[in-house]
Amino acid sequence: MSGIPAVELRNVDFSYNGLLVLRDVTFSIPEGDFAGIVGPNGGGKTTLLKLMLGLLKPDHGTVRVLGQKPERVVRRIGYVPQNFQYPTRFPMTVRDVVLLGGLGREGKADVDSLLQTVGLDGLGSRRFDALSGGQQQRALMARALATSPDILMLDEPTAGLDAAGEREIFNLLQELNERITVVLVTHDLGFVSDAVRSVLCVNTEVRRHPTSELGEITGELLETMYGTGMRMVRHDQCWQRGEGCD
After folding, report:
1. Whole-angstrom Cα distance, residue 81 to residue 237?
2. pLDDT digit string (tens) for 66-99?
3. What residues have CB less than 8 Å from 27, skipping those under 6 apart?
4. Distance of CA 159 to the CA centre of its chain
5. Which residue spans within the chain are E strands per DSSP?
6. Which structural domains are found in the chain, ordered by start?
């Protein structure tokens, strides 16, 4: 551990076309953290993530990732977008998708090793569009890991997945968090409350709460922290009893 925060924002304001989205945002995410970004729709969650990625510039304030401006450490940041856009008529294989993550990098990514890491061993030659939703998310995570990043950022990686697919993705993220920092936007904090170490509550303003200070995360607690709009899903209780969840 270097002691440098993985992410640090100081007095950040951001607006779209004059409409204030984020106001006076100041927080830091320590190296090795597993941080969940939560909040109501339109509250600024994805905007905050894009500021961390360097895809957007703040109106005021500073954004630092690994102690530097995000654009200077782009190869040390892995990113999994909510929607992966690609030409559907082009028969992209899983291997093709993963290799996209290493474009511009010296040498070639070890695709087989990456697929093994995300649990897709032997599927490199399969067409990407033939995978299940959960398998596609795993392939996109392998793509994000192609540059051996220090931070993995994800925008709602379980959107559209069933309970089993969600649990598989979050189990994988917990494994990856043993060696890299993980930051993700999610609507299902109740589902991963046993995994995340801190919560960034976003609704124009941002508050960071270590989960150790929150106790049990409930819908009432989250509503108190940042308002309505949060979806609480406690599939973990079903899995602990050995039952499936619809």
Report:
1. 28
2. 999 999 999 999 999 887 766 666 788 999 999 8
3. 8, 9, 200, 206, 207, 208
4. 12
5. 7-16, 19-29, 34-38, 60-65, 77-80, 151-155, 181-185, 198-203, 205-210
6. 7-240 (3.40.50.300)
